[in-house]
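thread: overnight batch results

M.L. [08:02]
morning all. the overnight job finished for the chain we discussed friday. pasting input first so we're all looking at the same thing
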Amino acid sequence: MKGLYIHIPFCEYICHYCDFVKRVPKNQDMIDTYLIKLREEINSYQSHFDSVETIFIGGGTPSMLTVDQLTYLFDSLIRIKPIEYTIELNPESYTHEKGKLFKKYGLNRISMGVQSFNNDTLRYLNRGHKKEDIAWIISDLKTLGINNISIDLIFAIPGQTLDHIKYDLDEFIKLDINHISYYSLILEDKTYFYHQYLKGNFTPMDEDNEAIMYEYVMNYLSSYGYEQYEISNYARKNQYSLHNNIYWTLGEYIGVGLGAHGFIDNYRTYNERGMSQYMDHFLKEKTFQTDDLKLQDELIFGLRLTRGVNIKQLEKKYKINFYDKYPQIHEKVDLGLVEINNDYIRLTKKGTMLGNQVFMLFI
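M.L. [08:03]
and the structure it wrote out:
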């Protein structure tokens, strides 16, 4: 399976925790000019169009584009017939007219940035929507026949308690959708929260409380029939994210747009992150992936999946003896961080909370 990732870097405002490539546009002309250049980059990959099976339009905030701008973008992709076609949206920029446009162009999966159902928390994160917006949007999308819907939530936000987490999960269950991505808040460089941290005005949640929250999330969602198929992702009725699964299984994907990454024909591609550079030339760097690098990535990304990695297949593919190459893996088994059964290595529940201790073995 091959994917196409498209980055729309524009936002109406900047969330306090976000470190993605983004900017508040000066005007609509700036967006229009970017989309023209983006179409040019998309067309440079047209030899791959027939083999692209997933499209993911992310950001930034793709849903802040006008109907005309979205139409231009979707027309740029009309020759591709993906199985899964996803767009990220922020609740405050969704309209029924945009939903109809999604349906018209065959988009069949929505990933919505909710982050919390607590309005005080949303203000703290500098989000632009309110809890009350969410249920209407979900209902409207379902009315349009778009039922493959995922939302993002965040835990381990300073000031959050288990009661807050339970409330968010209770509100999620009421939506009756089949996928959720639930991430812990990470303090990233070059974010508002990081600058506040440097000033002594932001204190990250301690690891023990974060672990308690994470375990609560896992147990709660499991009790409602959601399978944790990746460290931060849960699904009912097998509605996994096909596009993200490409990343986790070291599949090929094209990355287009400002700051986008790709993995195609054994090369990692890295686009320019500055707008003026991108408008002049798309690609900043292209790096050949040796077997050692691919093995490293396959283990680190593959162990994010709860099914784990097949050791025998890995040994055959890379012509290695797994235990000779990574003798310290036995120590991680003894510590209860990983388990090995029927030739599969996977993280334990404890290991999902301390995954970096395992991943460092492969770097």
